[in-house]
Amino acid sequence: MSFDWINFLSFTGSQTVSTSRGSKLSQQVILDYDYTFTTPYCGSETIEVDSKKNESGESLETSSSLCWVDCKEQIDVVSLASKEPILFYDEVVNFEDELADYGVSLLIVKVRVMPSCWFLLLRFWLRVDGALMRLRDTRMHCTFGDSTNPVILRESCWREATFQSISAVSLSLPLSLAPPSPPIVGFHIVKTKDFRCNCAIV
């Protein structure tokens, strides 16, 4: 599995968003691309398999796509909150743009490995000043076990809010570049979906 900005950008499309700055009236700009870089991207679903050699001795790399199916299982948040030692942790900023000083568009990946499992978060955060905010999270979790085909659970959740809806329930607006954690009051869930994948070669 991989998460990179090139594939992320390939999922963006055209869109119209109204923006406002200070006392200026809202301006609507129609572009042939989505300048907010909003994307449904949740990772590149290809895994590399052990390389093989052909008759001439050259190494041949093979790959396989992961097969995700809808499920009702959910990531065990309680187990993730347990005080296990963290064997590995990393955070990578895949993409960041300040939208010509009209906000921020940010894509980050966080990964954590514990003795019993690994957990990954892919987060897209968008803030268009005076207009809207979007928070799109993709979480993946896999528990280690004796099975040769471990199960990966993936949860996707899209949240969205307008500046007007936030100001109606909160005295402060999220003006920092970093996304709010946990999501602030005023965000509504646009879409949520749970998937599972058996890590078998298909």
What is the string of SSEs from the N terminus onward? HEEEEEHEEEEEHE
Strand order of the largest sheet: 5-11-10-9-8-7-6
Please state the structural category: mainly beta
Report the span from N to C terminus: 15 Å
For this structure, the quaternary state is single chain
The residue ranges in which pLDDT falls below 50 over 5 or more consecutive positions are 14-26
Counted by DSSP, the helix tally is: 3
Strand content: over 45%
Give the averaged pLDDT, no decimals.
Answer: 76
The shape is: globular
Radius of gyration: 20 Å
Largest sheet: 7 strands, antiparallel
Number of strands: 11
Helix content: under 10%
Give a brief rundown of this model.
The protein is mainly beta and 202 residues long. The protein has three helices and eleven strands; from the N terminus they run αβββββαβββββαβ.
Description:
By secondary structure, the protein is mostly beta strands. A hairpin with a 7-residue loop joins strand 1 (16-19) and strand 2 (27-30). The protein has helices at residues 5-10, 77-81, 163-169; strands at residues 16-19, 27-30, 46-53, 59-65, 69-70, 88-97, 103-113, 117-128, 132-143, 151-162, 188-198. The two termini are 15 Å apart. The chain contains three helices and eleven strands, in the order αβββββαβββββαβ.
Jot down its keywords.
202 residues; two-stranded antiparallel sheet; 9% helix; 46% strand
Topology diagram in text:
Blueprint (H helix, E strand, L loop, with lengths): L4 H6 L5 E4 L7 E4 L15 E8 L5 E7 L3 E2 L6 H5 L6 E10 L5 E11 L3 E12 L3 E12 L7 E12 H7 L18 E11 L4
Antiparallel strand pairs: 1-2, 3-4, 5-11, 6-7, 7-8, 8-9, 9-10, 10-11
